[in-house]
Amino acid sequence: MNANEDDPVVGEIDVFFRTPDQNNELHLMQYPLRHALSAIGSERKIHDVQLRPRHARIQMRLALYPESDDFTHTKSFNQNPILEKKIGQEQTLTSQAHLQPPQSNYTIGCFVPDTPSGPAFTIVPIRAVQQLRPTFSHIDDHDRQQLIARAERKGLLPSGTVEAPSAASPLTLSFRRRETERAAERRRNSYATLKQRERSDAWIPIQFAHRHRDDVLAKKQALFSAFDHIDVKDTLFERGTSYRDLFETHTRHMRAGFVAKAGGVRKEPLSAQQLHVLGTDAAVVQAMEQARIVRFAELHRLIGLHRPEDEVLSALRKAAYCVRGLWVVKKCGKDVGRKNASERYDACRMLLLDVFRRSNAVRTSDAIHTLGEPLLVSFASVLSILQEVGERQKGVGWQLRLVCDDKFVKEHEELCRTVDEDWERWVENARECLRKAVRRRR
């Protein structure tokens, strides 16, 4: 077989991308530490589980031995009985506190070889990974009590009796200097303030269920079931969707710098079921904000094939530009702050999209030359625009990240033309915006 030929196809497996329900989140709990005498895979009894909702922190109390009543081998030292009991019988595990909702790029895959339609591989994304680590707060409390008792015996601290206050006590006055903005910012971000906020988030007991329970098994089976057992409205793509198309839209939003923001917080992409409920215009806007660049057929499958093609195309022309048969969102995804800076960024983005529209490959130096002198945006902004829609190929330059759909280009030649009156008007407006910015600087 020649090196240029494709690898032979020895088998085909259907790959499905499945998301949990809207009211559920899938977290991966990692607590790898175990006692040497506890076998791998053995069940550890969970005493209770608590949650700090604002900090997304989880605390679990687990039994060290699942089936044994003899805990003497796990005692570290002979202190008071309460401490010995906690050390010998329990292990407290807590996750790290998060100021922002935790994110994860992990997925769980389930391969079912004997479905009615053949082998199937289901992929489910994980919302976050919670790494649980052991805590020794009970030992710290015990040491603190020992220090207090030792200080009382030496007379450094008053014992249980409290002296009566004197009849008259001197009155002292103190004046505080007004806190500066920098000092207030340091105080708000200090470790003591962050810990105080965390302590104010009270622990809330939550229910937990064993993995062998019927309702848990039913949820697991529904989540990782084959395509024949999944409702069509809950799936993201049709059965004939290729493996690459499956992930093109739903992994691109994880790239840094191209995530839609709402109040400084990441805006999660909507599921296919949520997109199907929205109107066509709103669904197209939501999908384009995450994808940034997309093929028409891929977008149509994502928001629902039940929508008329003309209606989707009309909504798409309002929200995106057509560049060589691909659709690029009109609204930039980068928060550039001030109004003038935002206008300059949008104008430079329009000129670089025009270069992509006319050429198959764009070098970074050519992109900077296109924007003219002086360069009104930073070099990082130029790279951000190029990375939004393109990929850098060694020895070639920047090329569009997706390959255009030849079928769409043939059916809509008027949209995919290199020269277009509306497009030329938009490009000229962008050049005029940059010329005004240069005059303002001078």
Automatic annotation (TrEMBL):
One of its GO terms (cellular component) is RNA polymerase III complex. It comes from the Eukaryota. Pfam families: RPC5. The keyword Transferase does not apply. Keywords: DNA-directed RNA polymerase, Transcription. GO terms for biological process: tRNA transcription by RNA polymerase III. This is DNA-directed RNA polymerase III subunit RPC5.
